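Case study 2.
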Amino acid sequence: MRNLVIIIALMFVVSCSSAPTSRYKYERGATYLTASWYGEKFHGRPTSSGERYDMYGLSAAHKTMKFGTKLRVTNPDTGKSVVVIVNDRGPFIRGRDLDLSYGAAREIGLVEKGVGRVRVEFLERDMRYVRRIPFVQPGAPASYTIQVGSFTQRANALRLKKGLAYTYEDVSLTSVMIKRKKHYRVRIGEFSSYDDAYSMAEKLADEGYRTLIVKAE
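Prediction:
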């Protein structure tokens, strides 16, 4: 009898020690992330998906989620929820996982606090964000690269480059003068064949980036 009591006590200790230590990890398919918001400074600027950022809209930035991903975000402090669509990369501050638009943060009462834990549920993906790859007739054997964006403002190009660098290597920024105006181009990799470049472009296009295969300079 004494041995049975000891075994039951040990089982209780083990079960308690294996219980989750943080209520912010997972909850029936949902996860808890640290969220912040961004607003006026970026209003009207191009996002990493190519759309213009609307601070009053219901959108979000994430480091790796495919563009078009729809999320339900709930603020546990207020109990309020909002549905957002991921169309940008970020946040670029360590320790933060999700950047909400000002409009989304306002909906759930996160504006004043600025940063906080939120409950995030994946809903679906808007497949309209999957891009097509413009056809380019391969020429003579040459090396190729993939252009993901071209901007007249260097800050916009740098932001896209930083977002791509979360997932991809060999992301570069080049500049060229077109009609007396400097353009900043964000490109990825150098490929010895068109087929290799196309394979990478497919991956980027599926993620939601606009791509163009060009000859490496």
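Confidence is low (pLDDT under 50) at residues 1-27.
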